[in-house]
Amino acid sequence: MAILKIARMGHPILLQRAEAISPAQGQSVRQLIGDMVETLSDAGGVGLAAPQVHQSVRVIMFFVPEERAAPDAEEKSVPLTILINPEVEPVGKDTELGWEGCLSIPGLQGLVPRFRTIRYRGVALDGTMIEREASGFHARVVQHEVDHLDGILYPMRMRDLSQLAFNEEWRRFVAERKEMTGK
Ligand code: NI
User: Fold this and answer.
1) Ligand 1 centre distance from Cα of residue 16 (Å)
2) pLDDT at site 180
3) 89: CA distance to ligand 1 center in Å?
4) Is 128 part of any domain?
5) pTM higher than 0.90, yes or no?
6) Which of 5, 15, 122, 140 is the most buried (most CB within 10 A)?
7) Domain ranges, residue 82
8) Is the torsion defined by CA of 72, 74, 78, 83 positive or negative?
9) 101 alpha carbon to ligand 1 midpoint, in Å?
């Protein structure tokens, strides 16, 4: 396995629509996924899509750490989930705003609207189909990663670019404001 170089915003591969994986690609996908797991762990993120490591194919991985799980969700956290050829559909029309970062846009975070609840499915590494309903942060991370497969980065989803901040300033000004107002 190997730690792969992560493409940063501005690299054209991040703006391409990624190709679906065919069953014939089994062995190379296994290798790619192994390398992506190692890369994600090294980078300290919660999700990674193959285009971010310069492979324009439809593979994502993510997890929901305990501290990011929604307090009202039945599922407290989600273990590392690998999805090949994932699909997402919204459940209802409700959207909500939440702060997102991206390993391809280091040092920044932005306030991004996402569907509150989604249904998603994709093929696991062992060939079985994973199908889940997700809300809150879980739904947000899946929408973020699947967007990477369609050449979409989170700033392209933002409605208000005044809500794009460097992490240090976010901690100093935005997190403080949230503490004061609860928003
Ligand atoms: Ni990202």
Assistant:
1) 14
2) 61
3) 19
4) yes
5) yes
6) 140
7) 12-181
8) negative
9) 7
